[in-house]
Amino acid sequence: MRQWSFHNPVALHFGAGVFDRVKEQIGQRQWLLVTHKDAPFAPMRDRLLGHVHPPLAIADAIMPNPSLAMLQHVCGLLQARAEGIDVIVALGGGSVMDTAKFLAAGHCDFRSVACYLDGQVALGGRALPVIAVPTTAGTGSELTKWATIWDPEQGRKLSLNRDDLYAEAAFIDPELTASLPWPLTLASGLDALSHALESLWNRNANPITRSFAIAAAGDVLAALTRLQVNLDDQDARSMLASGAMKAGLAFSNTQTALAHNISYPITLDYGVAHGIACSFCLPEVMAAAIGADDACDTALGSIFGALSQAPQALRRRLTDLGIAGDPAAFGIGGEAWRGIVADAFDGPRGRNFIGARDRFPDRSVA
Ligand SMILES: [Fe+2]
User: Fold this and answer.
1) Which residues hold their Cβ within 5 A of ligand 1, which is an ion?
2) Cα 144–Cα 275–Cα 162 angle in degrees, nearest 5
3) Which of 3, 129, 165, 319 shows its CA 20 to 30 Å from the CA of 335?
4) Ligand 1 centroid distance, CA of 194 (Å)
5) Domain assignment of residue 5, yes or no
6) From the CA of 186, how far away is ligand 1's center (Å)?
7) How far does the centroid of ligand 1 lie from the alpha carbon of residue 25, in Å?
8) Which residue among 156, 175, 194 closes a domain?
9) DSSP category for residue 145
10) 51 CA to centre of ligand 1 in angstroms
11) Which conformational region is residue 322 in: left (phi greater than 0), alpha (psi within -120 to 50 degrees), or beta?
12) Does residue 2 lie in a domain region?
């Protein structure tokens, strides 16, 4: 039997009301709050600020898909107070988490992390600790040690990947997602589904990641089906948060694979939300994965039924959720699509993929 290991050092707190325990985690430390400025975040922000000593600073000029330009702006605003920060609290979705990790890595100094990402210099010292409080169910960033940073000016997607960027604690409170509108619920939920499946058709998969991934995919699909008809179904909200957490634990150890590598240019060049960009072609990626590894096949069969029809079964689920399967629906022409897929197989995440290029279908699985 092949040797394997599983590692995740994040202290994980899950359930309705755990948000109120963030206070104990902060303790007497001087803290920086990273969050969104938008109105839906106001009640959560007020609830946190209402019972914890005031933060040293608040960084809330956070935009989706954090870019180097946005991070430079945020670091500039924090410069005067950066020295005294002991811990960062990230309250938000994936963009807030990734921004918090960038700030943590360089102690709010933009230049040091930007030069590190360019491969010019090492990053000295240990990152600031982060307390992660996700307000969406999907990104999994609260359980991983990496952050995605975008450089649209140069058409680059950059990755921070350091052991000291695991959060010291994550507080996953499904009640924080209670008022999330359907498009965001769907996109973040499908991101979690992608994390689960990408950790299955992955060279780094092991029995623990597989069991988390199978449970995650089941939770996410069931929860999205319920939330599509009733967005106020709090049990389904909790199931979705649980699924996203399990997917996070799975892919924190395997990384993602081909579908994520396909998604990056689609987000960068076509403006498609990450959760949609990495999920609309999952049936094609699955078709290319089936037959490559017995354990992966067994896992996919346990989620989607007979393997011969599993990609079609997933396509039907995605169609029912309103997700188009044809790249043309996102403005991607045939030649561009073939180029994106070919590049993705050679990309860093694509190399995690167990499937074969010649089994990737030419047309969308219908
Ligand atoms: Fe993702």
Assistant:
1) 191
2) 20
3) 319
4) 7
5) no
6) 13
7) 27
8) 175
9) S
10) 33
11) left
12) no
Written as tens digits, the pLDDT of the chain (366 aa) is 689 999 999 999 999 999 999 999 999 999 999 999 998 999 999 999 999 999 999 999 999 999 999 999 999 999 999 999 999 999 999 999 999 999 999 999 999 999 999 987 889 899 999 999 999 999 999 999 999 999 999 989 899 999 999 999 999 999 999 999 999 999 999 999 999 999 999 999 999 999 999 999 999 999 999 999 999 999 999 999 999 999 999 999 999 999 999 999 999 999 999 999 999 999 999 999 999 999 999 999 999 999 999 999 999 999 999 999 999 999 999 999 999 999 999 999 999 999 999 999 998 898
- Assigned domain for 242 exists: yes
Regarding whether 168 and 242 lie in a shared domain, the answer is no
Distance from residue 275's CA to the centre of ligand 1 (Å): 6
**Residues 161, 145: one domain?**
yes
Q: What is the spatial distance between Cα 354 and Cα 361, in angstroms, rounded to a whole number? A: 15
Number of domain units in the chain: 2
Domain membership of residue 167 as a residue range: 11-175
CA–centroid distance, 1 to ligand 1, in Å, is 30
C-alpha 120 – ligand 1 centre gap (Å): 27
Please report the DSSP string for 294-322 in residue order: HHHHHHHHHHHSSGGGHHHHHHHHHHHTT
